[in-house]
Structure formats: structure tokens, C-alpha cells
């Protein structure tokens, strides 16, 4: 089945810094979504982005489907951005395959 | 904005007991899913459901598990005889179009 990798596994930032999270996948995808898992365990849907670029406030994402990667940009990070960021893809069928996540800690 | 809801938020049960986790998907969605996340691990697919039947399931979804859409709004996951290793966060999701999925807040299941 499709493999999903995320880097870096852990990231520590000072408040106000910018960061880039990466998701690589091993096959073509029909869907790609980025999620933020907050400290309470909830999965917050950030972007539905099988291709192209989207922006939402301080966050933006780009997926280059032909090269099998996606990037999540966080600008001017805040402590509330802390948590785990997951990339998830649909290769065939309907189910998501999740990556292992990037754990982000934003320090005040 | 419409959202997926799940109840209860936390369920504690004894090994061997049956549990039912409940989800209310977004009202006009047609595809429904259950995923689970064991503490500290990644999210794993369990099952997808469309047109009142299972459309896809993973190896995890064995005979201990079942899903049902008992009425027009609820979508349930039943675990017949819980084991310690069933302790996890269980997420329900739904989609209207085939691909974009919306996740509920999760039910944390603790089996003692």
C-alpha cells in the first residue's frame, strides 16, 4: 500500500517563528488533507489539498502531486499552534492513510 | 458550520463488556468512516460505510467490530467483547463528495 512520511518528526519553535512541515507519499493520490491534533486529541481539518496551493490566515499548504509531496507552512507561530500535524492521503478506495505526524511545540 | 459529533467523549469499560460508540455525521453526507488512534501512535482506518453497507474495512476490523446506521442520523461502532488493546481514541468521519472527510472530536475508550 501507499507509504506516507512526514518530516521533521519533532519541531520546537519560539513564538513568532515560521516553519515548514513536509509530507511525502509513494504513489498518486485522490485526496490529501492536513490535520492539527490539539492537546485534547481532537483532529482539526486544516486543508483539503490534493493539488495546488491554499491559504488560510497564517497557514498555507502546497501539494505538488506529480512529485508526490505536500508542504504545510505556518507563519508567525503562536503557542496555540502546538500539537501534532498529520498529513493523510487517499490512494485508492476511500480510506485515509495517515502519516506518522510532526509534533510541534511553540514556546512563549 | 455543520460538524460531526460523537458521544460519549470518554467511555470507561471493563474487559469483555460490549460498547457502542455513537456518531452523528453531517446531515447531507453519504459516506461514513471509523478510525482509531492508539495513544502515541498514528491514526488507523477501521471501516467505511456507504448506502447502508460496509464498503471497505481494514484488517483491524475483525468479527468483534460492527457498524450500523440505525436511523437517518446516527452511525454507530459496536465492539462486542472489549479487550485491553481496544483502548484508543475512536474517530468518526463523514464525506459528501467522495474524498474530503470531516472528523468528529473523538471518543476516548479506556478498557480496564
Write the layout of secondary structure elements.
The complex is a heterodimer of chains A (108) and B (112).
Chain A lengths: L3 E4 L2 E5 L4 E7 L5 E7 L5 E6 L3 E5 L2 E6 L4 E6 L8 E8 L6 E2 L3 E6 L1
Parallel strand pairs in A: 2-11
Antiparallel strand pairs in A: 1-3, 3-8, 4-5, 4-9, 6-7, 7-8, 9-10, 9-11
Chain B lengths: L4 E3 L2 E4 L5 E6 L6 E7 L6 E7 L2 E5 L7 E4 L6 E5 L8 E8 L6 E2 L3 E5 L1
Parallel strand pairs in B: 2-11
Antiparallel strand pairs in B: 1-3, 3-8, 4-5, 4-9, 5-6, 7-8, 9-10, 9-11
TL;DR?
With 108 residues, chain A is an all-beta fold.
Mean pLDDT across the residues of chain B is 94
Percentage of helical residues of chain A?
A: under 10%
User: Which spans of chain A of ≥5 residues are poorly predicted at pLDDT below 50?
Assistant: none
Q: Note the total helix count of chain A.
A: 0
H/E element sequence of chain B:
EEEEEEEEEEE
| Structural category of chain B | mainly beta
Order of helices and strands of chain A: EEEEEEEEEEE
Helical content of chain B stands at: under 10%
| Total DSSP E strands of chain A | 11
The biggest beta sheet of chain A reads: 6 strands, mixed
Q: What's the gyration radius of chain A in Å?
A: 13 Å
- Shape field of chain B: globular
| CA-CA gap between termini of chain A | 41 Å
Biggest chain contact:
A-B, 23 and 25 residues
Nearest-integer average pLDDT of chain A = 95
User: Kindly, what is the distance between the CA atoms of the first and last residues of chain B, rounded to a whole number of angstroms?
Assistant: 37 Å
Q: From the helix content, strand content and strand pairing of chain A, which structural class follows?
A: mainly beta
Low-pLDDT stretches of chain B: none
* Radius of gyration of chain B from CA coordinates: 13 Å
Beta-strand proportion of chain A: over 45%
Description:
The complex is a heterodimer of chains A (108) and B (112). With 108 residues, chain A is an all-beta fold. Chain A has strands at residues 4-7, 10-14, 19-25, 31-37, 43-48, 52-56, 59-64, 69-74, 83-90, 97-98, 102-107. In chain A, strands 2, 4, 5, 9, 10 and 11 form a 6-stranded mixed sheet that branches. Chain A is globular. Chain B has 112 residues and is mainly beta. In chain B, strands 2, 4, 5, 6, 9, 10 and 11 form a 7-stranded mixed sheet that branches. In chain B, strands 1-3-8-7 form a 4-stranded antiparallel sheet, with no helix packed on it. In chain B, a hairpin with a 6-residue loop joins strand 9 and strand 10. Chain B has strands at residues 5-7, 10-13, 19-24, 31-37, 44-50, 53-57, 65-68, 75-79, 88-95, 102-103, 107-111. Chain B is globular. The A-B interface holds A 30-31, 33, 35, 40-43, 45, 48, 50, 86, 88, 90, 93-101 and B 31, 33, 35, 37, 42-45, 48, 50, 55-56, 58, 89, 91, 95, 98-103, 105-106, 108.
